Amino acid sequence: MSRFEAMQVFVKVAETGNFAEAARQLNMSPPSVTRAVKFLEDQIGTLLFARTTRSVKLTEAGERYVDDCRRILADVSEAEAFAAGMYARPTGTLTVTASVLFGQKFMVPILTDYLAQNPEVSVRALFVDRIVNMVDEGIDVGIRIGHLPDSSLSAIRVGSVRRVVCGSPGYFAARGVPTVPQDLAQHSVVTSTSSFSSLEWRFGTNRKSSINVVPRLTFSTYEAVIQATLQDWGLSRPLSYQVAPYLMDGSLQTVLTDYEEAPLPIHIVHPEGRRAPAKVRAFIDLAAATLRANRFLN
């Protein structure tokens, strides 16, 4: 018997707590199960089970070893599945996350195209304005805007956006146009309580500065911030993609462009450490090509 087969027997005995039951489930004879465990104990040089006439319990060494065996067996099973082609075609459920507006504007059409191309996959989309812990929340792929901290995520850059200060022509006609960041103290400001928002507005690329704004109007969503800006109420500082159509048709205008920060990168991210299944690879290929071709994201 190989060590790999002996590990399978050992894990089954640990799960059932009984040599005879493990033998029954594995379709083996009880003496064969006993020999497999004895083989491992001889290889390791320590007892894995504390045996009595009435019970079988893992020793301290056995408790540590059973976790390692489960991991090794899972890795081997995954490698065999990969070699057998189980990851050759997209199947299962794909879970994707993005911020709310980005998801609504750009991810919905990508996801519907993806589903049309991959009939054996279903999608769960989580659009929230917070940083999601992808591993803890079971996320396969995410869209991140901003500079990525060091992490265990694989990242593919697909574009960039800018933070822009903007207002409506009606607002500027009534209140004037700020020409330097310090002028913001004389203007009405609209902000959001989103985790991506801040009351410290930073400016510049080399010689950086910041202004702490005091908003008179605060919303929980950025959709509402943009609507108030369109209605001549005040200045806001969205990401460029969020207001791109309004900038194009003149409903909103940007100011302080000479003081803007460097553009923020957009990445597709996914957990690394295991081979990405076909459902993830197919989504990344489609999303990367689509987002890179979008004029609002470059």
Explain this structure:
There is one protein chain. This protein has 298 residues and is of the alpha/beta class. It folds into 3 domains: 82 residues, Arc Repressor Mutant, subunit A; 105 residues, D-Maltodextrin-Binding Protein, domain 2 (3-Layer(aba) Sandwich); 95 residues, D-Maltodextrin-Binding Protein, domain 2. Helices cover 41% and strands 21% of the residues. The chain contains 9 helices and 13 strands. The strands form 5 sheets. The chain has a 5-stranded mixed beta sheet, covered by helices on one side. A hairpin with a 4-residue loop joins β1 and β2. α2 packs across α3. The protein is elongated, with a radius of gyration of 29 Å. It starts with a helix and ends in a 6-residue tail after the last helix. The mean pLDDT is 90.
Biggest sheet features:
5 strands, mixed
Per the CATH scheme, the topology name of the largest domain is: D-Maltodextrin-Binding Protein, domain 2
Give the uncertain stretches in residue-range form.
none
Morphology call: elongated
Helix content percent band? 40-55%
User: What is the CATH C-level name of the largest domain?
Assistant: Alpha Beta
Beta-strand level of the residues, as a percent range? Answer: 15-25%
Can you tell me the CATH superfamily of the largest domain?
Periplasmic binding protein-like II
User: What is the count of helical runs?
Assistant: 9
Distance between the termini: 59 Å
Radius of gyration over C-alpha positions, nearest whole angstrom = 29 Å
The appropriate CATH architecture of the largest domain is: 3-Layer(aba) Sandwich
Structural class assignment: alpha/beta
